[in-house]
Specification:
The protein is α/β, with parallel strands linked by helices. The protein has three domains: 134 residues, no CATH class; 124 residues, 3-Layer(aba) Sandwich (Rossmann fold); 66 residues, Nucleic acid-binding proteins (OB fold (Dihydrolipoamide Acetyltransferase, E2P)), CATH 2.40.50.140. It is 58% helix and 14% strand. The chain is elongated. The protein starts with a helix and ends with a helix. The model has no long low-confidence stretch (mean pLDDT 80).
Amino acid sequence: MLKKVVQLFIIIAGGTAGYLYIPEIIKLISFIGDSWLSSEYVAPYIGLVLGAIIFYLLTFWLIDYIVHFVKWLEDTLLKAPVTDLFFGSLGLIVGLVIAYIINQPIQDIQITVVSQVVPLFVMILLGYLGFQVGFKRRDEFLSVLTIARKDKDRKNERVESNEQPLLPKAKILDTSVIIDGRIADICQTSFLEGTVLIPQFVLEELQHIADSSDALKRNRGRRGLDVLNRMQKDLPVNVEIYDGDFEEIQEVDSKLVKLAKVIDGIVVTNDFNLNKVCEFQNVQVLNINDLANAVKPVVLPGEELTVQVIKDGKEQNQGVAYLDDGTMIVVEEGKDYIGKTIEVLITSVLQTSAGRMIFAKPKLLEKAL
C-alpha cells in the first residue's frame, strides 16, 4: 500500500513539474517554431503527460529507496518521545517563521540567483536550527513550564487563603549530601524550607555507587538510598524527583548548576569544589559543612582546653588531638605528649567550608616561659 501511495505521489509531482516547466522547454526548441505544440493551450497538457511518464519510469529505480526511507522515518518518529516531537516541531515552526520574515526583503532583490536561491537556503538553515534548538533544549523549556505551573498553582492557593508569602526556592540535593545523611536530620527539624528536589541523574549516580564492586562505595550508596527513603516516607518534607536531564552536559556537578539556574533553585552539597563553582556562577548554595561549623562550640584564641594528643603531626615536633565533634587540634611542640592528656592554650583558629582547624600549644610550655 505504501509503495503505491509513494508511486502515485511521484507521478503527480512529475505531472505538476511537466505542466509548469516543459512548455518553457518547448518554446526554447527553435525548430518547432510557432507550431501547435508550442500553443499555450496544448503545451501545458503535453508537459503534464510527459512529466508524469518520465517520473513514472523513474519510480522503478527510486521507489525501493524512497519506501525504505519513509519506513525508517516512521519508525523513528513513533519511537521518539512526545515531548521531543513537540518541542522539535515548535522550534521548526519558529525557525520557518523567522526565515519567512527575513526572506521578504531578499526576494525583492533584482538578481535572479539571490532572489530565488538565497531564500531557499535561509528557509532550510533556520528551519534546521529551530528544530535543533527546540529538540536539544526541550528539558529546559519543560522545566520552566513545569516550575512555572507549580508556582502559579501555589500562588493561587495562597491568594485564595488571603496569604501572599514569598515561596521558598526548591532545594536541589547532590550525591555527597545524600550519602552524608545529615540532611535527613536537618529536614526533620524543619530548618530546610520548600521542596527538596532529587534530580534523576543524581539518583542514577547513587544507584551506580550502590552497585559498585567496592564494598566501601557500595555501603555508602546503599546508605544514601536509605536516607532518601527515610526523607520521602518518614519526614515532614516535600520530596520530588526531577525527571529531566541535560544530555549535552556530561558531569553531574555541571548538570546540578545548570538545573539550579533553570528553575532558580538552591544547590545543597557537601562538596567543597561544587560549592566554589556555584559561588563563581552566582548560583545559591547551602553547604552542610558550613552549617555544622556554624553550630560548633566557639573556640577563641587564648582559651584553654584539655585534650589527649593522639599522634604526631606533619611538621616537626607537632602533635594532633581532636575535640568531641571531630575538630582537629594541631599542638605545637606536642610530639612528646603523644598518648597523654594535657592542657593546651589556643593560639589561632582556621575555619573554612572544608572544616575547622585549631592551633594550640601546651600550657606547660607557656608557664615555663
